[in-house]
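The data layer described in this paper is built around a simple, fixed record for each protein. Such a record has a labelled line for the sequence and another for the backbone structure tokens. For reference, a complete record is included directly beneath this paragraph.
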Amino acid sequence: MSTVLSRFLLFSVFVFFGAITFFVPFGMLAQEPRMDFVRAEVQEVVEKDAGTEFPLQEARLRVLTGPDAGDEVIVSNEILGHREDLRLAPGRTVILQRVERSDGYSMYYFQEYYRLPALIISFVLFVLLGGVIGRRRGIMSLFGLVLSIVIIAFVMFPLMVSGWNAFSVSVIGSFLIAGSTILIAHGYCRRTLLALLSM
């Protein structure tokens, strides 16, 4: 008797929510706002007193990417924790979060400074220093690093996502990464073979 009653209640719940979904006009259903990230250049910054302990800035920015490229927007930036690295300055390129509401209006929020050029310079310096200081072995170690990233991204991660045991994949992947990196960086010799056997 209880299974019949529980099935009837489950069926009633499905019918109720199905009827609501079918009869409620689609315009009344809540629509999730669309979010993306765009680059913008700070044009002007005005410091304001918000009456709180944290400084407040109001900035005028020119959007560089995205559907509103070329438009100017106003963004408020409350500097939480008095972090000077989050203070906006004219001429700096920043990342804004763009939230497009269902009515088509876009709101912008400051996220972070645009740091890609600094990251590229750091990467180039890392490769150059690896080659200059480590010479052949340093360059080969960089190739080992690239191979490690490839093994993680194209072997280990897809296996874990497809449902393989994460612990087993991690152990086998670690042996593959360590073995290949040692062989690439130091070549095949007696010491390398002993290092591989001791793993």
About this structure: The two ends are 62 Å apart (CA to CA).
